[in-house]
Each structure stands twice: as structure tokens, then as C-alpha cells.
Amino acid sequence: YAVRDGYIYRIKVSPYGFGQAIYLRHEDGQFSVYGHMSKFSPEIEEFLYQKQYASKQYEQEIYLPEHQMPVRKGKLIGYSGNSGSSHGPHLHFEIREADERITNPLKHYRNLIQDNVKPIVQTIGIQALELGSRVNGQFEKLEIVPEGSQGNYRVPGIIGVTGKIGFEYHGYDLLNGAGNHCGINYTRLFLDNELIFEFNMDRFSFEEKKFINVHFDYGHYKREGKKFQKCYLDNGNKLEAYQGLVDGGVINLWDNAVHQVRIELGDTYHNTSVIRAQIRRDAKRPYLPGSLSFPGATTMHGLARRNVYVVKVKNPSTAHLRGLDLHYADGETERVLPAYFKDKKLVFLVNLNKWKHPERIVDPVTGKQLDFHLRQTVLPEKNNIVEYGELQTYFPYTAVFDTLPLRIQRKTGNNNMYSDIYEIGSQEVPLLKAFVLNFEPKHSGNPQHLIIAKKSRAGTWRFLGNEIKEDGGIYASSSTFGTFCVMADSSSPRIKPLNFSDGSTIPGSQTSLRLKVTDNFSGIQNQKILCTLDGRWVLFSFDAKTSSIRHRFRTRPGPGQHRLEVMVYDNANNLAKKTFNLYF
User: Fold this and answer.
1) Torsion of CA 14, 20, 24, 29, to 10 degrees
2) Most CB atoms closer than 10 Å: which of 199, 327, 362, 379?
3) Does 393 score more than 80 pLDDT?
């Protein structure tokens, strides 16, 4: 039902996103949004039906003038459902300001929804922010489960810190009588009772959406599935939700005193939880034993964190205390000494220099090495082109949040591929804008069926794109880093009727025709599904989640034989076509 007087401003129908959605504009200029609906009110359904038949398209995006479809508060506009990219029946509801910034809807309905539950804090994180920073002597994030509950929490002990560090938290909020986890709207960080960071998520714009990926620790979330919200402003973060910033919330102690840290987490109803911690500058040299001897093989592995490459040598010997050898492309070699020792591992930290990239790091004791595969530095305030092998990548202006030494590793493709395999960047690094890949296929093939594929987390190859340019290159864009190659898809989609068969009689009780449309690789082109009945276009809706199409009878065809023809294209332009004779 309409929450206020206004008019229908926009109607959107798509197999993705909000699915079937209504946008109302109200007298004060604000919007209310209703998404994932199963169907609209009869009046809206009729209007939409006429538009779909006029354009011969299921998908629609219709903007209406102010006086065409006025609504009064409480008027039926539709029914909740599961359309679009929804994982269960529900109504997606939003209140937007006149400039379409999304606002916190609870602020408008506090009198209808009760909440006296304080935010729940699960873990506190303290993160070293640069090469020389440490938290309790280590570079990795320190995770601590705080003591306490019901709004009062304490981090035990005194945490030793060196250099620039940042506080983070992992937690959630609840509403009375509801088990689903909500976000925490308000954060304030105090150092010795001075406010140095404040975050207020009462409103944000779509242009800011990607900055959420640097508000929380994106890499940790990809690895561990836990979202640590940052109580500091990280590089490239332009969310407008911050205020009261002193050094962006970053803490850097210069004296030897014990300092008090207080984090306040609040919700819309001003229920507030407080976390207290104590920190002190750690002036001690990192612990390194005088000698080392462990049973078992010596292993070495590394990973990048905040443009620092962390190398861990497990089961090291005393000789490893003399360091590892860092090799550069120009033949220069640099000795890297261990930064600290922890859990039977010597930890070495390598600065991924913005202008001079190391090629590899070598263990002189065992001869083992780690290759960096760094090709070029990608800058946030510049258009960047990086070429390697048959691949060219283009990173547009502000594609990356921060200066990024770009890693590209090439491996030989198999017989089913039309290029080598390229692992680009790290999936733990977020992007602000998509980057473009351009392949020049090594082997000949029908360009209409060639596609750029991306490897999923499960290890399977999935369609990314296949725009063919005049130069013969194959283009696609990706909003995340990953592993890519060129493959071919020459298999047609499959069409399978679900509630009828060829030659069947459709009973009077049956209200629709349903078919399954699937593809084994590149996927169905949702805008190239064409269905006709006796040679005339008929409307079939497409549900991407179930890979099915459906025609609902508004008026049943007349008695006798009718001919249904279904044509479906996949994203590699393979066509499937089936004809069914039906009797009514």
C-alpha cells in the first residue's frame, strides 16, 4: 500500500535487481520504493500490459508524469513477492530524498517499530596501517573478543602499538522480536575523551555505494566472511557519512603513557553500546630469538596486505635470521631482514614500492622463491593501460581506491581455450569502477561464439562478456579482480516445457504456460527471448533464478489447435528454437 499521497513516478520490470518495482513520488519531493513484487494492482497491471505489448518486450522502465497515476495513502499498489534478485519472498522498501539519496526508513516509522536492544559487539580489530606499524608486535590485524555484554564491553589488558593504527569492530544490531541482523548506524571513536572519528549512516547516494567496500575491511571479509567496520578513514574513501575527524581517526602515539580508547555504537533509537580499551606505545624492539631449530620441512608463503607483502617462513633455521634476498628486474638485490618471530614463523615485510617493483624474493637457505608478478602501478587519478601477452587491460580514472601495484600472472591455457589464462590482481582488493579486458585470441574460431570467461570461487568458468570490436579483439568488463581467459560456446540453449508437451490439450483449469530455458555456459540473453502464438507475439515473463519463462492467460485462445513457437538466444549468440502444437 502507498505509505503517503503522491503519484507513480516510475515502473520497473526486470528479471534482475528489484524485479517488479514501483517508485512513488510524494508531495515533499521524497520517493518511496517497493521492490521484488509478485504483481501490481489491476490498474497498474493493465497499464504495464499495454506497454509490454506495444514494445514487444517483457522488461520495462517507464517514467510517468505527475498527474497520470496519482495515489492516496493506503491505496493498493501491488503484492510482495520474490521477483528479481531476491532470495525469498519479501518487500524491499526504501525512502529516498528528492535527490534520490537513500535514507534510513526507521527514522520515519519509529512509532510503529519498537527497539530497545543495544548493538551487539562480537570482535574488536586493531589494524597496523603502514609498513612500520605493529599491534602487539605484529603487522596483521589483532582480533580480540571483548569482555562484557548488554552495551558495556572492555578489551582486556593494555595493547602495545607502534606507528599508525586503526580500530575496527565486528557486530550487529537487533530490533525487538526479530532475529535478523541489522547494521549499526552510528559510530564514534574517542581517544582520551577527544572525539576523533564519527560515522552517521542515515543517508547515502548511489554514487557512494562502492565506497562501502573501503569502509569495511573488504579483504578480511573475502577471506573470513566477517565484516570489520573501520573507525578510521581509509585511502580513497569518499563517503559523506563521516564527521568529527582528527587525522581521519588514525591513531599514532608518540609518548609512553597509557591512552584510553572509547568506541560508541548506536542505532536509530539511540540504544548505545560502549567499548573501552587501553593502548600504549610499544617502544621495544621486536622479538627475534638468537637461534632457531624446528623439526619438519621449511616452507615459505606470502600474501599482500595494504601494499605490503608479508612473507612467512615456517620452521626456519638460525641461518634465516640473516634474511631473505629481494631481486629486482634491473638485477639489483636487496637483503630483507626478519621483522619479527611468531608461532614458529619468521615474518618478513616487503614494501611494494610504487615505482620500483621487486620481481621475486628468494630464501638463500633452501633456494625456494616467491614470484611477485607485478607488471605496472595503477594510479587512482589517471587512466591506466596495462599490456601483457595477448591481453590488454584498461583501468579508467578512479577505477582503484589507492595506488596499486598490479599483479598479473600468466599460465598456459588448455585445448578448450583460445588464450592463455591470466590471473589479474587480488580478489581481496576492491575496485571503485570496472576495468576493461581486451583479448586478441591466439587461435582462430567463429568470433560470434568466442567469449571472455572468468573463474568462479568454485573453480568453474563463467561467462563475463563478448563484445567484438572492429580490430578483432574481444572485450569485456569486470568489477572485481580474478582469473580470465577466452573460451568458445557453440552449444545452443535448451528449451523444455514444464506444464504441457507438444500435442497436449490444455485444460480449462490451467492458467499459464511454463517452460524451462537453460544454457550450459554463457547464459540466456534475457532480452532475446521471443515467443509467438499462431505467429503473433505473446508476453512471457522471465525468472532468472529458476531459468523459466511463463505466459499467463488473460484470455484463453479459442477452441482448437494453436501453434506456439519459442526462440531463445544465449550470450554467445547460439539460437534454440522449438515449436509446440497445443489444443484448447
Assistant:
1) -40
2) 199
3) yes
